[in-house]
């Protein structure tokens, strides 16, 4: 495990799992076989598995030590959580907390948890099972959640038409945090810390946010699921099947990539394979990646 240093801020990736996920042809609503085939030479094996046709997906958190606060950005899937119909995320028993400890952070050290959105693979470790109850994993943390996203998932959890894995996600990973009085609902522009600012990046979910980091003259963007796979850098018009508002998702993706290209910000998405982060260059009306291989 290696750290990245962005200005005075130390960023460490905490992995939950890495492996083949959804088939590419099913995952992108705009999928076109010829367009995808033209990118395959650089996607395999880290970001695409040709033999199965599946995208390779990392599920990880970013541990961000600013000097003032220890911040966890996105909280993976969590353990022992029933996610019917989602076998890769159902009833996990992963050593994620041990990996967090190996990075030098105990649960009580986390000051702020910031979920970019409230999908099951971003808020799972918000809570853990203790004596048959879901309780906040990080006893001293404020849990920042997008106000818009929370309102959406709170309503969805009460709707019997909502898939069980999504109702479960709200009920076991969000509601216990609210009931414990540890949630803080935030809006566009919220400053988590002197160097971390929440920015609206909606479309993937109604209240999806990104988190912008600025320390001295260095920049980074924690982009959550505005992009899932690096092929969405050159093919930035391609959404994921989970993007609820495809036009807004595309606009948010373009805004992030433009910001990275103009400011030199390091792109730190939630699901990219090794080395998990890249700088972005504009190329005509598209973008290309400059991988951050020094730190994995
Ligand atoms: Zn995700």
What does this structure look like?
- The protein has 296 residues and is an alpha+beta fold.
- It is built from eight helices and 17 strands.
- The protein has helices spanning 24-27, 33-37, 40-43, 96-102, 120-123, 147-157, 164-179, 246-263, and strands at residues 3-6, 9-23, 48-49, 54-65, 70-73, 112-114, 127-130, 133-136, 142-146, 183-186, 191-193, 196-200, 209-215, 218-224, 266-269, 278-283, 286-291.
- Strands 1, 2, 3, 4, 5, 6, 9 and 10 form an eight-stranded mixed beta sheet that branches. A five-stranded mixed beta sheet has the order 11-12-13-14-15, with helices on one face.
- Strand 14, helix 8 and strand 15 form a beta-alpha-beta unit.
- Helix 6 crosses helix 7 (164-179).
- It starts with a strand and ends in a 5-residue tail after the last strand.
- The mean pLDDT is 97.
- The protein binds zinc ion (ZN).
- Zinc ion (ZN) is lined by residues 119, 121-122, 225, 270-271.
Please tally the helical runs, counting DSSP H or I stretches of 4 or more residues. 8
Q: Average pLDDT, to the nearest integer?
A: 97
Shape: globular
Main sheet? 8 strands, mixed
Q: What sequence of helices (H) and strands (E) makes up the elements?
A: EEHHHEEEHEHEEEHHEEEEEHEEE
Structural class: alpha+beta
Q: What does the radius of gyration come to?
A: 18 Å
- The proportion of residues forming helix, as a percent range, comes to 10-25%
Bound heterogens, unique: zinc ion
Strand content: 25-35%
What are the low-pLDDT stretches, counting only 5+ consecutive residues below 50? Answer: none
Q: N- to C-terminal separation?
A: 7 Å
The total count of strands amounts to 17
């Amino acid at each position: 495990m290696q750290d990245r240093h962005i200005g005075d801020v130390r960023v460490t990736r905490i992995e939950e799992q890495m492996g083949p996920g959804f088939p590419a042809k099913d995952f992108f609503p705009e999928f076109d076989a010829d367009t995808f085939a033209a990118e395959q030479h650089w996607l395999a094996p880290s970001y695409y598995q040709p033999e199965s046709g599946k995208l390779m997906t990392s599920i990880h958190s970013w541990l961000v030590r600013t000097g003032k606060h220890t911040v966890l950005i996105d909280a993976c899937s969590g353990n022992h959580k029933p996610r019917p119909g989602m076998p890769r995320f159902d009833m996990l028993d992963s050593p994620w907390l041990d990996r967090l400890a190996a990075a030098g952070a105990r649960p009580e050290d986390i000051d702020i948890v910031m979920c970019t959105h409230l999908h099951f693979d971003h808020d799972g470790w918000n809570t853990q099972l203790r004596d048959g109850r879901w309780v906040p994993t990080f006893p001293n943390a404020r849990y920042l959640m997008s106000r818009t996203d929370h309102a959406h998932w709170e309503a969805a959890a009460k709707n019997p038409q909502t898939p069980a894995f999504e109702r479960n996600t709200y009920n076991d990973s969000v509601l216990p945090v609210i009931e414990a009085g540890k949630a803080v609902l935030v809006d566009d522009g919220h400053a988590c810390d002197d160097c971390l600012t929440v920015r609206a990046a909606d479309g993937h979910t109604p209240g999806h946010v990104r988190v912008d980091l600025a320390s001295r003259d260095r920049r980074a963007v924690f982009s959550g699921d505005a992009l899932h796979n690096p092929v969405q850098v050159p093919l930035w018009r391609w959404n994921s099947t989970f993007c609820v508002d495809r036009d807004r998702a595309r606009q948010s993706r373009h805004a992030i990539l433009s910001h990275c290209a103009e400011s030199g910000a390091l792109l730190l998405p939630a699901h990219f394979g090794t080395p998990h982060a890249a700088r972005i260059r504009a190329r005509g009306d598209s973008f290309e990646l400059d991988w951050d291989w020094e730190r994995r």
